[in-house]
Design goal:
Layout: E1 3-7, E2 10-13, E3 18-25, E4 33-39, E5 46-51, E6 58-60, E7 68-73, E8 78-83, E9 92-99, E10 113-114, E11 118-123
């Protein structure tokens, strides 16, 4: 079993950048495919980005494509979400999730392990 802990959230102005980290403990993150999801107040949780277990394949929601980059550093047991050109509509709690699948997935039901979330607030 793996424990996931997100960090790096905060308050940023529109157009700014943040880098979220998802640190794994208990098992090496290289064993897991990882996805980032977000949930804004009053809205359902939505997919943001995902990366395969090898790191060779990534997948993005249309709303973040070209602005966000997911990557993994298995030596540091961490997955990152670099967020650039942030918009107020990116404001949400961001969660990382993992499971033992190989390829990426944009379906939250595929993921067995979830972090506690980190708040991202983008001011206009």
């Amino acid at each position: 079993q793996v424990q996931l802990v997100e960090s790096g959230g905060g308050l940023v102005q529109a157009g700014g950048s943040l880098r979220l980290s998802c640190a794994a403990s208990g098992r090496t993150v290289s064993t897991y495919r990882v996805g980032w999801f977000r949930q804004a107040p009053g809205k359902e949780r939505e997919f943001v980005a995902a990366i395969s277990r090898s790191g060779r394949n990534t997948y993005y929601a249309d709303s973040v494509k070209g602005r966000f980059t997911i990557s993994r550093d298995n030596a540091k047991n961490t997955v990152y979400l670099q967020m650039n050109s942030l918009k107020p509509e990116d404001t949400a709690v961001y969660y990382c999730a993992g499971d033992l699948g190989v390829s990426y997935s944009d379906y939250d039901g595929d993921y067995d392990y979830w972090g506690q979330g980190t708040q991202v607030t983008v001011s206009s």
